[in-house]
Amino acid sequence: MNRLERSWYQPLGLLNILLLPLSGLFWLLSSLRRAMFKQGLKRVYKAPVPVIIVGNIGIGGNGKTPFVLWLVPYLESLGLKVAVISRGYGAKPPSLPYRVTDNSSAAEAGDEPLLIYKRLGCPVMIGGDRQASIEMLMREDKPDIIVSDDGLQHYQLARDIEICIVDAQRRFGNGLLLPAGPLRESPGRLKHTDLVVYNGESDGVGYELARSGYFSVKDNQAVAQTAAQGVAVSAIGNPQRFEQSLRSDGIELTDTLHFADHHAYSAADFARCEEQAVFMTEKDAVKCQSFGKENWYYLKVEAQPSAALTQQLNSLLKQKGIVNHGL
Question: Which residues are annotated as a binding site for ATP?
Fold first, then answer.
């Protein structure tokens, strides 16, 4: 995390104040853009099946992907055929839209779409043109419902349900818009979403991230016992939460290495680790499998929703006519 990003979660400082004019410009431009879609001055694409957007109003580390990894199987358990679309941040696919497959690399697909595909096996399509992604899915897979991983601000795509994920620990930082703060939209935007879900909150509408074991980065096999100490390496929005999980499991961290969110790892990034054990998240591990070592591990986590979250989601699905039975 660089100096600017750290300042977003600290008391207001000179750097933030100096950037306020740019935040004002960001607000003006984003508000105008949203108004143009709302007034019909820009075309909105309506998919032939329901679309659920899982997004946030801030940048980095809010916990969207763990929620999507829970949401898709939950929808499938209700009898729905689900497909996922994503912009595929940082991905360099050979063509667009791009279907994630067993042979896809993290460089081609992006870390989060690849993780979703590997975990769930459902159709996953990436590309900035969400309409093109959906049209390809409708031709080839005929899903009953589309889940969009991110895209709350992608107003070109009509949505049936908006779910906004909020980090219960960090909330909205200093509450300012980019670049003086971490927000893409003001907290007032939450009033216009269908469901606000708090990552790290078991009471109310939220979910906890439960640890479900350690796995080998090299071959994805479950590991009965890890090394007792090692280096925590991460390229995520909130590395401190991950590192605290490791310490809670009794692992002594000899060092921590932080990279920018979605960082494209290479073997050279681990020069400081020498022969020490390495601990990382599952999202990091999908980018390191090709050069992972025997003593490299990743921690797998699962979203455990509160009863209130499941109840509100069920009500929304019925209200929108997506599910009419069994809830």
Answer: 58-65
